[in-house]
Amino acid sequence: MSPILPNIQSPADLQRLSDAELAHVAQEIRDELVRVLSIRPAHFASNLGVVELCMALHMVYDFSKDRLIWDTGHQIYPHKLITGRHAQFDSIRTKGGLMGYPNPVESEYDLFVTGHAGCSVSTAHGLKVGDDLMGQSDRKSVAVIGDGALVSGIVFEALNNAGGMGTDLLVILNDNKMSICPRTGSLASYLDQCRMTNFYQGSKRTINKILESLPVVGGLAQSALEQLRDGLKAYFKGGMLFEEMGFRYFGPVDGHDLPNLRKLLRDLKSQKGPILLHVLTEKGHGVAQASADPVTYHTPPVFEKIGPERTIVSLKRGGSKAYTDAVSACIHQQMQDNPRVAVLTAAMCQGNKLEKVRESFPDRFFDVGICESHAVAFAAGMAKTGMRPIVDIYSTFLQRSFDQIFQEVALQNLPVMFTLDRSGVVGPDGPTHHGVFDIPYMRMFPNITVMAPGDEADVAPMMKFGLTHPGSVSMRYPKTNLETIQRTVAPVEVGKAEVIESGEDGVFIVFGTLLGDALRAAERLRQEDGLSIGVINARFCKPLDRETILRAVREMPMVFTVEEGTLEGGFGSAVLEACNSAGLNTQHIVRLGIPDRFIDHAERAEQLAEMGLDVNGFCRAVRQARAKVSQESESLDLPVA
Ligand SMILES: Cc1ncc(C[n+]2csc(CCOP(=O)(O)OP(=O)(O)O)c2C)c(N)n1
Ligand SMILES: CC(=O)[C@@H](O)[C@H](O)COP(=O)(O)O
Ligand SMILES: [Mg+2]
User: Which of 39, 48, 57, 627 has the most CB atoms within 10 Å of its CB?
Assistant: First the structure.
């Protein structure tokens, strides 16, 4: 059969195809996923698992009018391939190319830029209620949510609200037994039980129909039948949880049976009220057919991404060690040395490279699922008992726990340590995943110490400090390979910076691992411009080393603060605030960091270069500042007119 997928310009083009042709398109989609993702690590297994579901949805609904939200959005590739973006698919997750998540700028079929799990039911509910109020009640609303995302607290907030309101909303639970790692928690076992039940379709409605058809038999028979119904539901087990929240439960159904999915979705489309359809899929489904590698087909890939060697690998990040490796090794060591140390992850055991910790200390390792708010409050509870919990988490995902950081940790002054992985720009995952806001949001609370290693040598002493300090500590580090700067490493002391190089013409004051590039820039400026630029490893943003930093501000003609975080309220702002309270002039201070806008997906090096946060950028900043200073001094020398 000749290729069909390249001719699919919109989902409407699917309508004219036979079942055999549709099956062919599904295979073409899988082949396309394997082809592109063999050259570029991206989300693979989750996309393979939703091919038929995506096609069925787009054949039953018209999402140019109806509303479709894919929870998290990492499984959006089949949706993009059949909504007119096949020709650009090679560009996915590259600078200027398609985003690896939904993107309304690309297509009317994408409604929200997402990347954080758990929000689909809320937004789909809002879309439906809004459309109704706007007089567009003919627009249907559908959310597709994975079993990993399902456990996020916000999902139950939405189910409760939509179920209570009786909104016409279809929630499709895409159950593939996996988060990134195997799923955890009681809901996981509940869903496993649901898998064992027969197809169950909203018996409540069926039984009520029987009731209505009977001649009036008074309340007694009704309540007896109601009890029978509840007994049946209890027996079925399937979906009771959702039924009790006001959603009629249908399922479980095979998520790879395209004809049956289309039939079922057509039936459900005409029904009223909140409905939850439980769909069973296989993460990584069909990859063997696509890559002709039988091994991977029968061992459902537990990983999200494919490496360049066309094999399912873990979240592959090149051969060299990353800061994540150094931190997870330190966590392991600290847990070995101190039985009071525990570690919590929010479904990112693999991303945080905690597998060895999980194996060595199963009683002190906690994967709470995609439940970041709970993770922080859980850690606070442990800290209250005298434990030393580490919340090991991506900076961007910790944003979900803002209020627990405030109330359960800072306000109680409890010793919870936050190891903030993926702080700074993260490359192809783009704006939903950059960890660029943690400096401001961590330093605003009393009682939290905010620090960042300048290089690998700082990691272990900082971890040790963080786990012995009486209060909460946040340590941020980026998604990049380790670097060790040759020097006599000064001991890590709270609120103390480390002067690495002195200079006369200016100074870089660096918070974080851009320290290496600042040193290389200073070396280049010495060689090419004859400038003597000092470099300070700030190490702490809060408390700031006022003595060292304010002395540099007083003595240096040019001062450059450097951080891989937003400038709004970041480290540079902390320095300006300190200068202001000390009554110092700050005109000669230049803050280098992430501008007040969202940074598009690209390679991390491209993103840093674009923001001037690399060697070239640092040299350019110094040269521009110097030119400005000499202009001003020339203008001062001009004879009075
Ligand atoms: C708030 C938040 N925490 C963590 C993640 C990281 N993450 C991305 S996908 C994923 C697993 C999602 O599992 P599931 O919802 O079952 O979707 P599947 O990949 O199985 O289709 C996780 C934990 C995230 N995107 N958002
Ligand atoms: C979709 C999601 O949030 C995760 O899969 C994330 O993309 C992982 O990022 P890393 O590759 O940095 O672990
Ligand atoms: Mg899943």
Answer: 48
